Amino acid sequence: MSGTILILVAVAAIFTLLYLVIRIKLHAFVALMVVSLLVGIAAGMPLDHVIESVENGMGGTLGFVAIVVGLGAMFGKMLEVSGGVERLAQTLLNKFGEDRSQWALGITGFLVAIPVFFDVGFIILVPLVYGLAKKTGKSLLYYGIPLLAGLAVTHSYIPPTPGPIAVADLIGADLGWVILFGIIAGIPSMIIAGPLFGKYISKKIHITVPDYMNFEEKEYDKDLPGFGMITSIIMVPLVLILINTLSAVMLPEGNTFRAFTTFVGNPIVALTIATLLTFTFLGTKRGYSRQDIQDIATKALEPAGIIILVTGAGGVFKTVLIDSGVGDVLGNIMAGSALPPILLAFLIAAVVRVAQGSATVSMVTAAGLIAPVIGIMGLEGPVLGLIVISIAAGATVLSHVNDSGFWLVSRYFGLDVKDTLKTWTVMETLIGVVGLITALTLGLFIS
C-alpha cells in the first residue's frame, strides 16, 4: 500500500480515537482497541494478522507493565492505609515550621506521589492545607498549590507511577534513566510551579475553605509509622533500579556485582522487595493480620486494573501501527522533521492531552506514535529516558475542563472554572514546560 494512503490511515486513526473518547465518551481502553483494529484493516493487513498483532501488542506490553503497576499499587495502598502519608506530612511540616510550610507541603507531595496515586494523596493531605489556611488566614492556594505541584510532578515523571512506566515500556527506555531524569526535571518543576507560583497566585486570588467541605482530622487505630522507615521504604525501589542502570554503564559484562544488581535492580524484583517490606514493616509488625494485608492488597488492584488495560491497549495500538506499515511511514516523516525527537514527543503528547484530557491516554498514544521514530533513528540508551520525560511533560500541560483532575481541584478548593484555569491549569503547564526545558537541556549533553 502506498505511503500516502498509509498517512491518511494514520491521520484518520488519530481523529477517530479523539472522536470516540471526546464525543462518544467511549472508554479509552475500548477506543484504543477499536482504532487499532480499524488501522490494521484499513492498512490492508490480513484479518488473522490483525488479531495476531492485537494479541502480541497486549501480551508484550502487559508482561512487564501489569506486574510493575500491580506491585506499585499495593505498595502505595499499604503506605496510605498505615498512615505513612500522614507521617511524612506531619514530620516535614514540623521540621520546616509554619513560615516554610509551603516547601514542606511541596516536598511531601513529591515523596507521596512516587508510590501513591495523585488523587488519593491529595484527598489524604488536603485537610492539612485547610488547617494551615484557617490558622494563618492566608489563601488556600498559598499552601494548596505547592502540595498539588509536588504530587503532580512525581505522578508524571518518576516511576513506579503508571504513566512513565507505561511510556518507558512502549518505547523501550530503561527505568533507571527515567527515574534519574525525572528527579532532575522534577525538582525545578516542583519549585517553580509550587512554592514560587503558589506565593504569587495566592496574592491574586484569595480563597478560604469551602463551606460544603466539613473535614475532620483522620484518626488511625494505630500509632503512625516512623518517618525514617517510610522514606527508606519509598527509596528502596528507586535506589535499586538506579544502581542497576549505573552499574550497567560503569562495570563490564560478566562482573559479579553487575550481575547481582541487574537482578535486584530489575523493576519487577525491586518493587517486589519494596512491596514485601511494606507488608512486613507497615503490616504484620504493626498489628495487621495476614487477612488484613490481603484485603488491602486486593483493594489496591481495583484502580490499577483500569490503568493496566489502557496501557495494554496502547501497546496494541503501537504494534498494529508497526505491523501494518503505518508506523514506518509516520516514523520516516517525523524523523525527517527539523524538530528534535524530544520536542516532537512533547508536542504529540500535548496535542492529545488538550484534545481529550486524560494524561494516561495522552502518554500511551504519544508513545505509540513516537515508537517508530525511535527505531528508524536508532535512538537508544539515556536519550530514551529523556523522551519519556518529554512525553510526560506534554501530557501534563494545559489541563482544562476535560480533565478529571481539573474538577477535583475545583471542588476541593471551591474555585470556579475561570479561577481553576488561572491556578491549576497554569501550575500544570509550568510543570510541563520546565520538564521539557530540562529534557532539551540534558539532551544537548547526551548523544
Short description:
With 447 residues, the chain is an all-alpha fold.
What does this structure look like?
By secondary structure, the chain is an all-alpha fold. 78% of the residues lie in helices and 0% in strands. It has 19 helices and no strands. It has helices at residues 3-22, 28-42, 47-81, 84-96, 101-112, 118-136, 140-157, 162-171, 175-204, 227-250, 256-264, 267-281, 290-324, 326-335, 341-356, 359-377, 382-394, 404-413, 417-443. Helix 16 runs antiparallel to helix 17 (382-394). The mean pLDDT is 87.
List the SSEs and their pairings.
Layout: H1 3-22, H2 28-42, H3 47-81, H4 84-96, H5 101-112, H6 118-136, H7 140-157, H8 162-171, H9 175-204, H10 227-250, H11 256-264, H12 267-281, H13 290-324, H14 326-335, H15 341-356, H16 359-377, H17 382-394, H18 404-413, H19 417-443
Helix pairs in contact: 1-2, 1-14, 2-3, 2-13, 3-8, 3-12, 3-13, 4-5, 5-7, 5-9, 6-7, 7-9, 7-19, 8-16, 8-17, 9-10, 9-17, 9-19, 10-11, 10-12, 13-16, 14-16, 15-16, 15-17, 16-17, 17-19, 18-19
Low-confidence stretches: none
Count the beta strands.
0
What gyration radius follows from the Cα positions, in whole Å?
A: 22 Å
Question: What is the residue-averaged pLDDT?
Answer: 87
Task: Jot down its keywords.
mainly alpha, 19 helices, 0% strand
